[in-house]
Each structure stands twice: as structure tokens, then as C-alpha cells.
Design goal:
Layout: H1 2-10, H2 16-23, H3 31-41, E1 53-56, E2 63-66, E3 78-83, H4 89-103, E4 108-113, H5 124-133, E5 140-142, E6 147-149, E7 155-160, E8 177-180, H6 188-197, E9 204-209, H7 217-223, E10 229-234, H8 244-256, H9 261-266, E11 302-307, E12 313-321, E13 324-333, H10 338-348, E14 354-358, H11 376-382, E15 386-390, H12 396-407, E16 415-417, H13 422-430, H14 447-460, H15 463-468, E17 474-476
Amino acid sequence: MWRALTFLLMAMALTPAELAARILTLPPALQPQAVAHLRRIVPNVAGVRKGEIAMRRTLPVERFIPTWAERLRAPSREKGASGGRGSGKSHFFAEELIEQHVQNPALRSVCIREVQRSLKLSSKALLEAKIRDFGVSDCFEVTNLEIRRIGGTGIIIFEGMQDHTADSIKSLEGFDRAWVEEAQNLSERSLDLLKPTIRAAGSELWFSWNPELKTDPVDLFFAKESEGRVHVHSTYLENPLCSAELLKLAADCLREEPEKYPHIWLGKYNTGGKGRVYSKFAELPYPAGNMDDSVHDYGGTLYVGQDFNVNPMSSVLACKVGDECHVFASLAIETSNTTEVCDEIRRLYPGRHVVFCPDPAGNQRRSSTTVVGQTDFTIIRSYGFEVHAPRAHAAVVDRINNANMMYAHENRRRVRISPAAKVLVEGLNGLKYKPETGLPNKKSGFDHICDAMDYLLWQEFNVLAQRAGVGFSTLAA
């Protein structure tokens, strides 16, 4: 009893989220007393803020629901929850499934993975734990292969999509819920088979996953907006029930392996860790990383890093702030040319002093020009813009090293990037070396925007030249 009393004495100093997390550490017999106290100090649990907890009494015991999951509670045809480790995605869907089966004894559900080698690796153990935690064991019969609803025809089964054909998948046509776990592994074939199969009136498809690649079928599916499709993204930071052990693991990862932290803990796409070309770039808030919400167009001279590849024409827009480069936008115009890029810069920034820092090859006649006899450089100058570029290409390895030293060197980050520069951020995260080589993989499509950034940094922020105490030959208008 003393533990509950201590809990109540300390309660007023805690947030509702902290209180709810502490409730779960109490013995089950003492939890109702703590919950009653929480209800007294937070009478309107429906309007809690992000990261706090809503409580529902549809089961014998209280169920705590993170605020991020509330959008998934309403009926929707397709529901997706992506995020990093410790966000509570699987726990939410497991609890939701058990609650719905308690409410509807005839509900039929299937839990799916792309490959289901063993039930030990499925969600079955988690569902069994939720049944015990909610005190509803009398509602279910748990067998070696499935979970049956006592007092009704409801059932929960477990399947691997890779085991199914177009004919065998028809056995799932009468099911009301399909929960796809680790949906980042779901193939396009499996997704195409599943969508029309689960088609009973009011049926729903649930997906939970830790993002791996932007091109994974589940990510492409939820990237498209559609009526009846809901997608939420959460991390351990939005999970008020995240354990102290997980919080420590996240902090350790951020300190010891910061290049892995965004993927593992924030649910960002897997950018290959140390295999990335721009390994010093970190998509974390400044000063821990290079992302800075405060970066904007400060006026004055506009610097444009430019790659002349026709598809896409890639541009980085930045300002100089002391010895720092602040990038506030990036452009990737499909099937374009230098004239169109200049038109767009003039439209967006009329009357500005503009300096292009382009690919040195722009001093030659190329397919990206639209006027016979003109070069990319002469077209840029015809708009009244300046051109600052070296007379010859620097070695690729030197450009990359220079850029990485700007992203992070000797506890300084001299490049700050606004989240609005999405194309550049994707490129810096995504460009990797070819296996067993020191050559960037240009087939990825990430190289063009990265090249544009390299040209800007090489021309205007040449750390390598500064460290060597030398200059370099430049063509300037």
C-alpha cells in the first residue's frame, strides 16, 4: 500500500503521460486507485496533447492509447502506422485487435507477414499477452495455431503471404481484418493479392512497419492519398509508455552511432549508414546535425549550385552567413534546360543579385542549352546572373571530401539546411558508394542534386584550398 501512497503524493508533479507510465509499474491490484487519481486531476482525457495518453473503458481494465494513435481508431479501409523502434505501433494494433474481438465475437482476423516461418516470430505471443493484460482470457481459446473467440465464430489466424497463390488467397475472402506486420518486407505481388481479397463489408487492412526504402511497396502505397486511407508516423519520442531501457538505448545510439539513429529510432529511410557518400551529413536538428528550421532566404546575394543534367536539372539555393552555407531551398526540374531554370530563378527572386556556381562543363555547348551556339554559361549571363566556376573539374573525391568537411569537421557544422530543401536532404541521405568501390552509385538518381551542392561548396566554401593555403583558377563573370 505504501507504494500507491507514494505514487499519489508525487502525482501532482508529473504530467499525465508520466503518470500513466508510472501506473503500469504498480501491481495490478493497486492500479485502479492510481487510475482514479489520474482521472481526478485530468478530467477531460479526450483533449490531451501530443505525447500524452487517452484512456478508454471498453475492457475490464483501463487501456492507455497514445495520442498519435487516435486517428487509427475511426473506421477506415486502410490504416498504416510507420515509425522507429519503441514507438508502440505493434502494441497499438495488437490491443486494438483484441478489443475489437471482445466487442464482436464474430470478427474474423488474419495476421500477416511476407514470410511466416514460425508462429514464434509472429504477433501471436503479443496478442496472447494482451489477452492476459486485459483480463479477457475467458473470451478466448488459444491453440497452437490460432486464437478462437469463445461464445462466437470469431477467430485470429496467422499467415505468410509468400505461401499464397492467387487461388489459395481466396480462403481469406471472408475475413474482416488483416494486420500486416513488418510491412516494409511486403512484396508488390503480395500487396496486389491482398487488397482485393479482404473485401467483406466494413473490412480493414492494417499495416505496421519500420521504413526501410522509399521505394518499398507499402511506402509507395501510403504515399498516395486516397479516401479511406489513414497513415500516421510515430517514434519513441511520441510514446509516453516507452520504457527507461529503450530511452537509454536511443540515447546511446544517438551518442555512439549517430548515423544509424535516424533510421533505427526516428523511422527514417535506411540510408546505408557508413556506406553513404556524405557520411558527415546528419538529418538531425542543429548543432547535433545539419537541419535548422530557422534557415530562410535572408536576402542579399543568392547563391545557386547548379548541375546541368537535363533530367532533372538540379539546383541548390543558399545564402552566405559568415563562413557558413545556409541552404533554404532545392529544385529538381524534370526534362528541363538552363533557360527554364533561369526563368524560374528570375520569377522566384526578381531583382536579386544571383551568383551561379555550376558544373564547369557548362562552358561548353551542351544539350541543356536551347539557343544554337550558346553555352549554359552564356545563357546564365544573358539573364544578368554571375557565373563563378573553376576552369576544370575537381577530382570527385576532392569535391566529396570538401563537402563532408563542411557538413562536420572539428566539432563544427558549417552547412545548415532548411527542411524545405527536401530534394537535397533525400540526396545526401540516399547517395551510396558502389559496393567495394570508392565511386558514388549514379544509378540511384541521387547524385545530381548532390553534385549541385558540391559545386557550390567547392567554389564558395573551399575548405581544402583554405587548409592548404592555396587558391584555384576560376572563371568568373
